[in-house]
Amino acid sequence: MPPAIHPEPTHTVEEQKQPSEVITLLSSRELERMRKACQMAAQLLDYLTPFVKPGVTTQKLNDLAEAWTKQRGAKSAPLGYAGTVMPFPRSICTSINEVICHGIPNSDDVLRDGDIINIDVTPIVDGYHGDTSRTFLVGDPSPQARRLVEVTEESMWRGIRAVKPGARVGDIGAAIQAYAEAEGYSVVRDFVGHGVHRIFHAAPQIPHYGERGKGKKLRPGMVFTIEPMINIGTHEAEILADGWTAITTDRQLSAQFEHTVAVTKDGVDVLTLSPAKVLA
Ligand code: MF3
Ligand code: CO
Ligand code: CO
Predict the structure, then answer these.
(1) Which residues face 13 on adjacent strands?
(2) C-beta atoms surrounding 143 within 10 Å
(3) Cα–Cα nearest to 245, from 81, 59, 94
(4) Mind listing the pLDDT tens digit for each residue in 17-44?
(5) DSSP 258
(6) Running DSSP on this structure, what letter comes out for residue 200?
(7) pTM
(8) Distance set, CA 271 to CA 33, 156, 169, 251 (Å)
(9) Which ligand is nearest to the CA of 132?
C-alpha cells in the first residue's frame, strides 16, 4: 500500500508527487486480464501457506515466491519498486508481529512459534497487477494475537461488503473503522488501499477509516485494493532506516489482510479470492 497523502500538504503542490487523480474504469476485457493476475496472486499465497512454519526464514519464503512466479512467466512487482530511500529489494513483503507493512525478507529473520506474519504478493501478469495479502499464524500464537488476526480479516470483509456502484469511498473506511474500533483496536492511517491495474498504485486512495457518504463515488469498472492494517495499541507508524519497514511506534502487534476488488454493475467482485478457499 502506498503512503497516504494527507489532505493538508506540508510542501508546495509542485514538490508533492501526487498520483494522477484520474480513476481508470476497466473494460470487461481488461477486467478479465486483471482477474488472471489476481488469481495468480491468490494461488501464490496458497502455494506459500504450508511453508509458513517455525524455523523458516523470510528470505526462503521470498525465494520460493520468486521462483514460483518466474516459472509462470510473471514478474514480482515489489522487486525494484521505487521508494524514497531505496528501491524495494525483494519480491514479496513479509511483515512480522509489530511490523505493519513493507517488511523486507531477510535470511536472518527466522519465524518463531507464536509469531504472526503478513505475506503480501503482487505478481504482474500480462501487464496487470494482482495484489493480495494474508496474515498467517506461526505455530501457536496467543489468544490476543489470534483475536487481532480474526478481527482484521473480518474488518476487510466489512469494507468489501460496503462496495457497490453509487456507494462512496468513505463508506468502506467507515465500515472498517467502526468494527475495528468497537473491538478495541486502532486503524493505521499512514497507509491506504489504492487503485490497481496496469499501474501498481493508482487513484483512488482507499483509506481504512473515514465517514459514510464522503469521498468519491464508486462506479462499475473501478478496481482497487482494500487492505486494512489493524493495531492492538496506537495506530501510529514509524519507518525504519531502510526506508520501507513500517512498525508500530509502541511495538504492539499489527495485522493486515488485502484483496483486490472490482466494482460491478450491482456489487463487488473479489478478484483475488482463492479457488482453494472457496471450496474450503
Ligand atoms: N503490495 C503492497 C501493497 O499492498 C505494496 C508493496 S510495495 C513494495 O500495496 F515495494 F514494498 F513492495
Ligand atoms: Co496493495
Ligand atoms: Co499488497
Answers:
(1) none
(2) 7
(3) 94
(4) 445 789 999 999 999 999 999 999 999 9
(5) B
(6) S
(7) 0.95
(8) 11, 14, 18, 33
(9) 3
Joined together, the cell numbers standing for residue 139 give 505455530
Residues in the chain: 280
Determine if ligand 1 sits within 6 Å of the CB of residue 120. yes
Burial label, 63 (beta-carbon count in 10 A; 0-12, 13-18, 19+): middle
The response to whether residue 58 sits with its C-beta less than 6 Å from ligand 1 reads: no
- The region, left, alpha or beta by phi > 0 then psi within -120 to 50, assigned to residue 193 is beta
Q: What would the pLDDT profile of 138-173 be if each residue is shown by its tens digit?
A: 999 999 999 999 999 999 999 999 999 999 999 999
Half-sphere exposure of 145 (CA within 13 A, CB side): 19
Taking the CA of residue 1 as reference, the ligand 1 atom at the shortest distance is 9
Q: How far does the centroid of ligand 3 lie from the alpha carbon of residue 170, in Å? A: 20
Could you tell me the three cell numbers for 163? 462496495
